[in-house]
Design goal:
The complex is a heterodimer of chains A (564) and B (167). Helix content of chain A is 44%, strand content 13%. Chain A contains 24 helices and 13 strands. The chains are: A alpha/beta (564), B alpha+beta (167).
């Protein structure tokens, strides 16, 4: 592969699509389960039957974002999105929009009732405030075609750095971009690369953490499914910068489609000489292997993940030494999250300075969130850092369905916390969310309304941590169990003020003495709900009553109350 | 799944040869253990005890360590699954949208608890931490097919249709 060939592929692919409409049928896991494959097949068949195939391409694409309205069909270059398209409605779209250029108004993607849906879906409330960097081409290109990715500028960043930049210059660029780890903790990415780069004369590895275990998070799945080449390119760039020749992508077994698309992408990249030996006719060799997880949440922790790649039980070990010094098989290892790698090609192409112009001063760029729970528009959104939670939930997300009242936004999964209404105007960045007692997390955002009980939610997450604790260290193994039992007592109406005091005493111990992030953050959901919804705990304890009507009180507790 | 018999697979089974080929593809590297176990479970539906010993021998890892890895990961099963399998997602989004009611309904309709199969081995019920389809909560995976926005009132019918279709 060389630049001329890369440009040839891009030009040829663009030429093929020239003056043609492109029908993108969302083939993300969510749309597939709503029947997208039938819609895709029907659309293909009808386009052929009507002889439209000279002017129309029908392709499957990755996640378009608005999962609640799937199967979605997007027409390019018009940027028109149609929602909940059945095979029969696909025929209608072909007949009107594709053949006669007439928009089918009744099927247009809509957010919020009572408003007329714009023909250009980027003008809808759902898309208007979004800013796409990671998801730039996800939903516009066929994830199973390397040509499609190259046509939108793919692998150009890899060529640029290999031909013009030294390793140090690449790292300097990433540092200038101010990119921070998107897995949740927010460690500066450039700094991490520099740490690995520093070790000379050693075999090194690049690892992509795709063990997206937080319940309620599906950003990485969507990126892996929708734009796998972007991850490969990001990893190759990292490999060059730190001096590694081998990369591993660790993906959950629960994401079979992501694994399949990655396998296809890796094969294609090898054939094109974009992975393997002498990439772009330079001395840079880099190859990537997939490692499939086996359902252990703790494997999202970096040292546990590395143990799992080595084929062992996925238990963490104390740090330091950090993986940057001693990682896979004791060698210096760079480990970044899927979304972090997905940011890299764009960062290189536009330059660090331009990249940092989006977002806030300390948190540059954008963040992908998975909106779910009691919210009108569930799905995948990418927003600039610094946007407020209120904008995400009420403008992009469309607010709470069924006329219910907002109660809390939960970010960071079992390691995060709940944010109440009073703090909704907080800007989304690492520091601000940290100050609220939660974390940015990997991007799961679950919205809860008045019918969700905060004590029950705290118990749910404690149950999660208790079950997923690997058992290696005592504070986590025993502490989560004790905290769960106490929460369970409160949820069944048998708790006392002393139990609450004990919980508050126990939580800091678990946080400070656990071996890894799982135990250290396990008390977060408890602590944050206690901080903002203490009155709900008190209602359970003093009145044996669950204000949200979720917890079933033990009859004995109510009986005791009646006799007292 | 108390009713299911734990059975060994005879080593003359043609699929065992296939398994040995997978191990060879990984050049018998011990670090491929988790990947090899995936391949075995994909082929047989579970991890037969005698084949765990074969894997141990081929990869030069003590059986105790292989067993330790097998039991550590939630995904691996030492017992055969049901003919049809229903996996209810209990991720946060599904939880707040009523996954427990779905589980209760399935348990009541088919007399099967989480982690068990029905006495005739027709249906197995499992739960998952999160399948990443939070936009479609509450979600259920029935024989590898994701059912979006399930409803306790309809789930029994959906499963019955599946059980009937492949009799």
């Amino acid at each position: 592969m060389n630049l001329a060939k890369l440009n040839d592929i891009a030009a040829a692919t663009k030429e093929k699509c020239k003056n043609k409409k492109r029908v993108c049928v969302c083939a993300g896991a969510a749309c597939i389960s709503s029947g997208a494959i039938q819609t895709l097949d029907s659309m293909k068949k009808i386009v052929k039957e009507k002889g439209l195939d000279k002017t129309v391409d029908v392709i499957p694409v990755g996640c378009i974002g608005a999962c609640h309205q799937g199967p979605l069909v997007k027409i390019l270059p018009d940027e028109t999105i149609y929602q909940k398209i059945t095979p029969a409605e696909a025929a209608l779209i072909a007949e009107k929009h594709l053949a006669k250029n007439e928009v089918v108004k009744s099927l247009l993607f809509a957010t919020g009732a009572g408003k007329e849906s714009p023909v250009n879906s980027n003008e809808t409330d759902f898309f208007k405030k979004q800013r796409k960097v990671v998801l730039e081409t996800c939903g516009n290109i066929n994830p199973e075609s390397i040509e499609d990715y190259i046509a939108v500028g793919g692998y150009q960043a890899l060529y640029n750095i290999l031909s013009t930049l030294s390793q140090e210059e690449v790292i300097a660029e990433v540092k200038a971009g101010g990119l921070r780890g998107r897995g949740g903790a927010g460690f500066p990415t450039g700094l991490k690369w520099e740490m690995v780069h520093r070790y000379i004369n050693s075999t090194k590895y690049v690892v992509c953490n795709g063990d997206e275990g937080d319940p309620g998070a599906f950003m990485d799945r969507s990126v892996l499914e929708g734009d796998p080449h972007r991850i490969l390119e990001g990893m190759a760039i990292a490999g060059y910068a730190v001096g590694a020749q081998k990369g591993y992508i660790y993906v959950r077994a629960e994401y079979p489609l992501a694994i399949k698309r990655l396998e296809t992408a890796i094969k294609q990249a090898r054939v094109q000489g974009l992975l393997g030996d002498k990439i772009f006719e330079t001395d840079f060799n880099f190859d990537i292997e997939i490692r499939i997880g086996a359902g252990a949440f703790v494997c999202g922790e970096e040292t546990a993940l590395l143990a799992s790649i080595e084929g062992k039980r996925g238990t963490p070990r104390p740090r330091p030494p950090y993986p940057a010094e001693s990682g896979l098989w004791g060698k210096p290892t760079l480990i970044n999250n899927v979304e972090t790698f997905a940011n890299i090609p764009k960062l290189i192409l536009i330059g660090g300075k331009e990249f940092a112009s989006v977002g806030t001063q300390k948190s540059a760029g954008t963040k992908v969130f998975a909106l779910a729970g009691k919210i009108m528009n569930t799905g995948l959104v990418e927003v600039p850092m610094g946007i407020t939670l209120r904008e995400i939930i009420f403008e992009i997300g469309g607010g709470i369905p069924g006329g219910k009242k907002f109660k809390a936004a939960q970010t960071g999964g079992p390691s995060g916390g709940c944010i109440p209404e009073s703090h909704l105007d907080t800007p989304v960045d690492y520091e601000s969310l940290g100050a609220l007692g939660t974390i940015m997390g990997s991007g799961g955002m679950i919205i809860m309304d008045e019918t969700s009980c905060m004590v029950d939610v705290a118990r749910y997450f404690m149950d999660f941590c208790m079950n997923e604790s690997c058992g290696k260290c005592v504070p986590c193994r025993v502490g989560t169990k004790q905290m769960f039992d106490l929460l369970n007592k409160i949820c069944t109406g048998q708790g006392s003020p002393a139990d609450l005091a004990l919980l508050e005493e126990l939580a800091p111990y678990v946080r400070e003495t656990s071996l890894c992030g799982l135990g250290m953050t396990a008390p977060n959901p408890l602590m944050s709900t206690l901080r903002y919804f203490r009155e709900e705990y008190m209602a359970h304890i003093n009145d044996h009553w669950c204000p949200a009507g979720v917890c079933k009180m033990e009859p004995a507790a109510q009986l005791a109350e009646a006799h007292s | 799944m108390s009713q299911a018999q734990v059975v060994d697979v005879p080593e003359s089974d043609p699929r065992v040869k296939q398994m040995l080929k997978v191990i060879k593809n990984y050049q018998k590297r011990p670090d491929a253990l988790v990947q090899v176990l995936h391949a075995v479970q994909d082929t047989f539906g579970y991890l037969p005890m005698n084949l765990i010993r074969v894997v141990s021998k081929e990869l030069h890892i003590p059986p105790s360590r292989v067993f330790g890895v097998v039991t550590f990961y939630y995904y691996f099963s030492l017992k055969p699954k049901g003919e049809h399998n229903c996996l209810v997602c209990t991720g946060t989004a599904c939880y707040v949208k009523g996954a427990q009611k779905i589980i209760d309904q399935i348990s009541a309709s088919f007399g099967v608890k989480d982690g068990q199969t029905t006495p005739d081995n027709k249906l197995g019920l499992q739960t998952a931490r999160c399948i990443g389809c939070c936009g479609l909560a509450p979600a259920v995976v029935l024989d590898n097919e994701i059912l979006p926005r399930t409803d306790p009132a309809q789930i029994t019918g959906l499963i019955n249709a599946r059980l009937g279709a492949k009799k």
